[in-house]
Amino acid sequence: MSSSDSPQRGLPEPPPRPDSRPVALTGRVTDEKGMPFVGVTVIQEGTTNGCVTDADGNYRISVPVGASVSFSYIGYKTQRTHVGVQTRVDIRLEPSDISLETVVVTALGIKKAEKSLGYSLQQVNSDAFDKVKTDNPINALNGKVAGLTVNTRAGILEDPPIKLRGETPIYVINGTPVTYYRGVSSDDIESITVLKGPQAAVLYGSRGANGAILITTKTGDDIGEKTEITLNSSTMFTAGYLTLPEQQSIYGTGDFGQYSYLDGKGGGVYDGLWTWGPKLDQKDPTTPSGYFETVQYNSPIDPKTGKRIPTPFVSHKDNFRNFLQQGLTTSNNVSISHKFKEGSFRISLNQLYRRGQTPNTDLKRFGVNMAANYNITRKLHINASMIYNYTYSKNRPWSGYGNSHPYYNILVYMGANNDIRDLRNYWEEGQEGYAQRNWNHVWFNNPWFVAEEYTRPYSEPELIASASLDYDITDDLNFMVKAATDSKHQNQEECKPYAWVGNDRGLYSVGSDRRVDVNLDAMLSYKKRFGEFDLDAMLGVSLFNYQRNYLFSTTEGGLQQPDLYNLSNSQNTPSTTSKIERRRMAGAYGSVTLGYRDAFYLSFTGRNDWSSTLNKNNRSFFYPSVAFSALITEAVKLPKAVSFWKVRASWAKVGFDQSTVYMLQDTYSFNTYWDGNAAFTPPTTIIDPNIKPYFTSSFEVGTDLRFFGSRLRFDFSYYRTYDEGQIQKVDINQSSGYEEMLTNGNDYRREGYELMVGATPIKTKDWKWDISFNWFQTRKYLDKIYNGAYNYNNLKVGDRADALYESVWQRDPQGNFIVFENNGRPIEDPFKRVIGYAGADWEFGISSTLRYRNWSLSFDIAGRVGGVIRSDLNARMIEAGTHKLTAAPERELDWTKTPSYIPSNAVVVVDGDIEYDDHGNVLYDTRGYAPSTTPVYFKSWIGYMGKLNGPYTMGYNLFKGDFIKLRTMSVGYDFSDLLSGSRIFKGLELSVIGTNLLIWKKLDNEDPDAAYKNFSYPTERMIGFNLTLKL
To answer: Where does the record place the TonB-dependent receptor plug domain (predicted)?
Structure first.
């Protein structure tokens, strides 16, 4: 049979019934280039009679006349022939344009043909990770997976928040569920598969109710029978910042245009925390410098009078930039892979170093990754993998609002009259170790003092390991047992020195958090083809065991001696908190997939869990799923342009055990009163005795359509999910002795659309261009409120769950602010209103790779449209007077200390009235307005606009969340052709790489991809290189 004899589209005619006469069928199998094809499976369909082609592509098999023989290899189209009187059949296999034979990793590490899946998944291969490196490989998924939102985090050891279809998924590494995922080296990742929704992850139990992200590391299976050594090195430097907050540098420290330093404690003229002081760089011919002069913290002291001498009040721009240091990230990996007849192994060593943008901060990680498989006998196989990492930071940067953060000490409150470079000598002369040198001693720490003296050492050894034993009872029946563990031990210290503002005698604390998860599985699987039917069935049991030991101790009353960070150095008895948690969940599960003519697939799964943290009457819960897929191109003759068309549908119901350790038990809280007597406080929350798991029911439909030999690809999904009876706290009558009850409460509905488009517009001998686009929209709605209440946290039935109900100012129909006539203050709306939505209206990503001979150019773009961001940073900068909006000349009107500013967008009510119902709906509004003539302080007015925690005003403390970001770009050259004659070097590739290169946004001073309430560090633009060498 030649290549022109390949099967036509449509369902084939049934083969003739075989008779008992055997035929010795021989032949040769070649690939699309006519080269011998080794390893092709040749099998008599419906039996176990088969063979594989040898190194020359030859095969020999004895089969009855009339039998059907198939020729298959992963990634190629399966071909079949019906045996007649011929004794030789040559076959030419063509690549599968639509990857009909592609095998993907699904729940529990089970490998399935992608064509048989009735739900949506997306796989990202190693190409996305092996060039542009970060300390967290999940960042590489940003913009590449429809339905997946990955937020950027610039700080060290700050895991990016990840939402899959609006919820938090489970993370699985080599089949082992883990608590987080940052420890896997990018060079060791083979692929990341995103299983979307509970249909895909139901076999993980309630932990997989929101989908799963499966990380599969590399093995030695794909290199042939040889040894391969690979070295990879990547170095990236900070090349500026994607967004660096701007301070105004026109006005300095003080208030009402006045400032004079005395002691930094408020004893001078407005020498407190505000930057509403005099104008900077004012010319004054009466002073020695020619500029306005006043006493400042670094003014020299007159030896005769003992008083400070005034110095020029001039601006020092870029204080924040001058404080930050150039970041650096280096990553190195060396691996050895070997494959032999009975198995294979791969071992890699990896090292990562990151120098933080804040001085004296860093991250170091050393890791070992091992994977091996061995065929003990023809039927017995063992697989094992291990990832061990040791992460260490001599000083983990602090995140949050407070005087441990450089944003607080520099960006928000330090006026531009202070020069950050002058503060580098942070000890007062003669008082080293006991007194800071700073411009303020009540609220703020010297930023260099914080960087050098305040440390937060951190270390974490982590082990993720698994081992499985497979036994082929028959060619169709397999039994497998697997054990896996995820063990982490976090150790963190906090060392505050003497002279710390708020802890003048210092502080030391130490914490240990050890967690061990153990997963045990036993599984019986059966796969067999019966003529035109396929059966794939599985039964299994599992046991999940969780334990955590937490211990935290801190000094009380400060340290006895400075610079001695030990609990025994505590002034008073140290306080200690400890916690022990234990949890267990057992499960039994099964699945059945029926296939017909390689075109139709129907799958059923079911699982029952028993949870130790639920009450005994409700701790057992069962949940099923069903999925269907149909390959239209295998069933119906379509135009030649249509390469592949698959439709899919699925439904699942997953029990979500939201209970935590001790959640269902009344436990007392330990407290220590002022006199030191120990006391225990009873709980304020009562547990509903009938509480049970809440269930998530999800329905999904989708289609996968490809044209022109898969040169143009479309994949679309629609899903709708119902969360019934989520576990939550609800208010109850306090006469019961409790304030709240934990029970099954509200119902929610989620729905969304996902579109993935891929194309290969150019594909020639020298050129290839691949481009992909993904778009998705996710919505979550409140469907039902517990006990029929009108609202829940201001949300009403039918509202989007991410609706932000916040305080707002009242406005007239033209958008002007309605103010009180007597004082000019804006009037707050008596009801909270929707100011926008926390989530985007939709998100998108674009990835492109262009190759010309040995050159390659790749880039990734991602963005979001819609949504709003409440910005604490901008609000606090406006309040402090450092925001650029506060540099308006109208601020000088306040210097008279008499309200003199009349806002042009303020009105007063001159007649009429407004009436609301109990829920804030306007019953009538007959108000008339006139421009306000009441003067106010400019500082007060702009403070109203940018008020912390609202009321919210767009452009001040509230911003649109839209952005488009050029996330990554790489330009590379593959030198492997130049090494073709080398016996040592097998491959060499060098790439220039960059991350976070450009952004368009509407949020002021922050990266909308990284912004969150307690200040985010500025997003660094990183540029560097990546080198890969194969031996």
So the answer is: 116-212
Provide the strand spans (E) within 901-953: 906-911, 914-916, 922-925, 928-931
What are the Cα distances from residue 637, in Å, to 269, 641, 712, 870? Answer: 87, 11, 19, 55
CATH number at residue 46: 2.60.40.10
**Least confident residue range of 82-86, 511-515, 561-565:** 82-86
pLDDT band at 266 (very low <50, low <70, confident <90, very high): confident
**CB distance 972 to 855 below 8 Å:** yes
Contact of 162 with 149, CB cutoff 8 Å: yes
Strand-pairing partners, residue 212, are 170, 195
Q: Where are the beta strands (DSSP E) in 764-883?
A: 767-784, 791-792, 795-796, 803-806, 817-818, 833-837, 842-852, 855-865, 868-870
Residue 1029: CA count within 13 A, CB half-sphere: 11
Catalogue the E-assigned strands of 807-841.
Answer: 817-818, 833-837
- Measured CA distances, 847 to 128, 771, 969, 1026 (Å): 10, 6, 10, 19
Give how far Cα 159 sits from Cα of 232, 491, 602, 1010, Å: 24, 17, 38, 11
Per-position DSSP letters for 159-193, written without gaps between them: PPPEEETTB--EEEETTEEES--TTS-GGGEEEEE
Contact 740, 730 (CB under 8 A): yes
Question: For residue 110, is it within any domain?
Answer: no
Structure tokens at 678: 């120990």
Closest by alpha carbon to 931, among 806, 765, 819, 790? 819
Q: How far is CA 839 from the centre of its chain?
A: 15
pLDDT tens sequence across 26-75: 999 988 777 788 878 888 887 778 888 887 889 999 888 888 888 887 66
Question: Read out DSSP for 7-38?
Answer: PPSSPPPPPPPP-S-EEEEEEEEE-TTS-B-T
Kindly provide the residue ranges of all beta strands, DSSP E only, lying in 531-641, ordered along the sequence: 533-559, 570-596, 600-611, 620-631
Name the phi and psi angles at 683, rounded to 5: -70, 155
Give me the sign of the Cα torsion angle 285, 291, 292, 293.
negative
Measured distance CA(723)–CA(721) in Å, rounded: 7
Q: 80 near 14, Cβ under 8 Å?
A: no
The answer to whether 932 and 824 have CB atoms below 8 angstroms apart is yes
CA distances from 422 to 403, 419, 427, 432, 448 (A): 19, 5, 12, 17, 10
In this predicted structure, what is the pLDDT of residue 18? 45
The answer to whether residue 400 is domain-embedded is no
Instruction: Name the residue range of residue 80's domain.
Output: 3-92
Among residues 274, 257, 164, the alpha carbon closest in space to that of 210 is found at 164
CB atoms within 10 A of CB 812: 17
Could you tell me which of 156, 122, 158 has the C-alpha nearest to residue 141?
A: 122
Domain boundary among 912, 946, 980: 946
In this structure, the strands spanning 170-173 and 212-217 are: parallel
Q: What would the pLDDT profile of 512-532 be if each residue is shown by its tens digit?
A: 999 999 999 999 999 998 888
- Per-residue pLDDT tens digits for 689-699: 888 888 889 99
Average pLDDT, stretch 835-861? 95
996 in any annotated domain: no
Amino acid symbol at 308: R
pLDDT of residue 7: 36
Residue 101 has a pLDDT of: 55
Q: Is 734 helix (H, G, I), strand (E, B) or coil?
A: helix
Nearest-5° Cα angle at 683, 678 to 687: 155
Q: Six-digit token pair at 627?
A: 């999925």
Q: Is residue 99 part of a domain?
A: no
Query: In total, how many domains does the chain have?
Result: 2
Which residue in this structure is represented by tokens 């439909």? 701
